[in-house]
Specification:
single chain; mainly beta; 1 helix; Agenet-like_dom; about 5% helix; Agenet_dom_plant; Agenet domain-containing protein
Length: about 150
């Protein structure tokens, strides 16, 4: 089952880039608009992994390493061995607060939404709606990639 939510743009979605750890550190040190998060805060992490651009995963802050780096623990992603939640060091630029829970009565063509699938939220736009069906185009390429069956 896929869940939809309104896309609350905390940050601009930008064209994903493949960055080395050194590039991420440099980019983080040049940014002046990052928030400070505390141990235990529940947040969303924007993926920079190839094939996962435009997706967000819920995590908890484990520790702050510096102004620009945090250790996080995902709430839905597991380590490669499948035992225990995955932990990573991420740039502060990848972290955003959880969006507010806003009840939605319906969606319209062109609405920016997030679709919850495969343990994360994927940003997209509604491209087609018909009774019981909805087609999403996922960002950043905005190509149609999902046909959703929606309960009426």
């Amino acid at each position: 089952m896929i869940i939809l939510r309104d896309r609350i743009p905390h940050f601009k979605l930008t064209k994903p880039q493949k960055l080395s750890v050194a590039d991420m550190k440099k980019k983080a040190s040049s940014s002046s608009t990052t928030m400070a998060f505390q141990r235990g805060d529940r947040v969303e992490i924007s993926s920079i992994e190839e094939g996962f651009e435009g997706s967000y995963y819920t995590a908890n802050i484990i520790a702050r390493l510096s102004k620009k780096e945090y250790i996080i623990q995902y709430r839905t992603l597991l380590k490669e061995d499948g035992f225990g939640p995955l932990r990573e060091v991420v740039s502060a630029d990848q972290i955003q607060p959880l969006p507010p829970q806003i009840p939605v009565t319906g969606f319209s063509l062109g609405d920016a939404v997030d679709a919850y699938e495969k343990d994360g939220w994927w940003a997209g736009k509604i491209r087609f709606i018909k009774t019981g069906l909805m087609v999403l185009g996922f960002l950043p390429k905005d190509k149609v990639q999902a046909l959703l069956r929606v309960r009426s």
